[in-house]
Design the sequence.
């Protein structure tokens, strides 16, 4: 079984500051982990994925995520947030092609 | 390349009525998914198709929900009769290998 958890409902950050969105996972076996972003009235857009290999994964729009096996975490990061990064972010784990999503974290970036 | 198409984008019905959603996946994608996203929650998988066969429908409320994927391309999801708690966004996704591509969703409101 595989599950992910996003402990924060909302993250507030000022433009230009670092952004971190937290995700922890619980899996049996090797995890396949993903981050998606959802803008209002739009579908989910893929940001990045971890399958195997380097623990630091680089993705779209300047985002990256760090896989930490000892802490069972897969936090999403961006060094300098933009107002346009304000959206709903979902962490997901995959098992046999099925995605299990976290509850989502609303990111609010203020000018 | 064209993305996943869904229609309609919005639908308002009264409880006990029926409704149908349509999805056209990315050309060549063998796997198609339907998700239900209730406000404030992450998407939940309803059904997964591989070509025109069902891989997983364990979370589909089969007493009222049905889905088909004739000829292994387009898919329809039907609800009959609808309940108030079916108000949600219904997302269609298709995949090739390990990444899923999402459509814009159909927002359903049941009154």
Sequence:
């Amino acid at each position: 079984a595989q599950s992910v958890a996003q402990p924060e409902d909302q993250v507030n950050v000022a433009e230009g500051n670092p952004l971190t969105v937290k995700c922890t996972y619980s899996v049996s076996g090797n995890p396949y982990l993903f981050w998606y972003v959802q803008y209002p009235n739009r579908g989910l857009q893929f940001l990045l994925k971890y399958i195997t290999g380097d623990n630091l994964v680089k993705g779209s729009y300047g985002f990256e995520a760090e896989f930490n096996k000892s802490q069972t975490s897969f936090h999403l990061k961006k060094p300098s947030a933009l107002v346009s990064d304000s959206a709903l972010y979902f962490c997901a784990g995959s098992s046999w092609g099925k995605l299990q999503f976290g509850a989502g974290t609303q990111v609010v970036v203020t000018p | 390349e064209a993305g996943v198409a869904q229609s309609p984008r919005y639908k308002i019905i009264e409880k006990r009525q029926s409704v149908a959603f349509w999805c056209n996946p990315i050309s060549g994608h063998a796997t198609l998914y339907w998700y239900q996203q209730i406000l404030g929650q992450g998407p939940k998988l309803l059904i997964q198709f591989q070509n025109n066969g069902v891989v997983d429908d364990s979370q589909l409320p089969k007493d009222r929900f049905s889905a088909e994927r004739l000829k292994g391309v387009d898919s329809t999801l039907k609800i009959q009769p609808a309940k108030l708690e079916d108000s949600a966004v219904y997302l269609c996704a298709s995949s090739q290998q390990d990444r899923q591509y999402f459509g814009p969703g159909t927002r359903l409101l049941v009154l």
About this structure: The two ends of chain B are 37 Å apart (CA to CA). The mean pLDDT of chain B is 94.
